[in-house]
Design brief:
The longest helix is centred in the N-terminal third of the chain and has 19 residues. With 232 residues, the chain is α+β, with helices and mostly antiparallel strands. The N and C termini lie far apart (45 Å). α3 runs antiparallel to α7. It has seven helices and seven strands. A hairpin with a 2-residue loop joins β5 and β6. A seven-stranded mixed sheet has the order 1-4-5-6-7-2-3, sandwiched between helices. The chain is 37% helix and 20% strand.
Length: 232
């Protein structure tokens, strides 16, 4: 089993800033707001200014559902705060008009899952229905551990998480990424950024992922943070 596909609770870029990133964003931590602003500048504002960041808004899972084919998404280029506001307006308009939420045709979990299973079966591996329908069993085939790691990230962003912060590493279609996941009173989101030792990190694409219910809270957070640090 290629466990290099993903690693949980790894050290990442924030370890260069904070002695203990896992406590830096807890409510009782001194200078928590400063930590939050600095993190957003490092992981989000700078990549936005370089034109390498994408916003991914997810939806579709509700009432405990977690079927891969039901998870929908829409991606937006995220170069400025106005790009984020456009996403907010799109989803607000859909909600007001009682129309389906915006979504792309491609499935972010179901399609790569089906492809990984097909490749495993083509190599002679038996992939049972139980393995296919149980995310915790996906690491039984190549590519499955990375998909399971991403599944858990999406699941926590939809249904919540007690830990304020966690850092993982995971293989993605764009290569290995650090996953910085935040579950804060200001909002819940994840930032997928290149590894710190990636020689092409400045040009490599990054991803801001959040559930559609978090658009307005994160809009407020970005207005406060990205604008504050714009001239630094």
């Amino acid at each position: 089993m290629p466990y290099t596909e993903a690693k949980e609770h790894t050290q990442g870029r924030l370890n260069a800033l904070f002695a203990d990133p896992y406590r830096a964003f807890e409510n009782e931590t001194d200078e928590r707001q400063l930590h939050l602003h600095v993190m957003l500048y490092m992981l989000l504002a700078r990549p936005m200014a370089r034109g390498t960041m994408t916003l991914r808004v997810i939806h579709g899972w509700e009432n405990g559902n977690f079927e891969p084919e039901d998870l929908q998404h829409l991606d937006y280029p995220l170069d400025t705060l106005e790009d984020f506001k456009r996403a907010v307006r799109d989803f607000e308009q859909a909600a007001k008009q009682n129309t389906p939420l915006p979504a792309e045709d491609s499935a972010i979990l179901a399609t790569p899952l089906a492809n990984a299973i097909a490749e495993a079966q083509a190599e002679g591996q038996i992939v049972t229905d139980e393995i296919k329908t149980t995310p915790a069993r996906w690491p039984a085939f190549e590519g499955g551990l990375a998909l399971y790691t991403l599944f858990k990230m999406y699941h926590r962003l939809v249904y919540g998480e007690d830990d304020a912060y966690r850092c993982s590493q995971c293989q993605t279609p764009h290569g290995p990424r650090e996953i910085h996941e935040f579950h804060l009173e200001e909002g819940e989101f994840a930032l997928l950024v290149p590894l710190s030792n990636d020689p092409y990190a400045r040009e490599a694409p990054g991803l801001l992922v959040l559930h559609e219910s978090q658009l307005q809270p994160i809009e407020k957070l970005l207005e406060e943070s990205v604008s504050l640090l714009h001239d630094f």
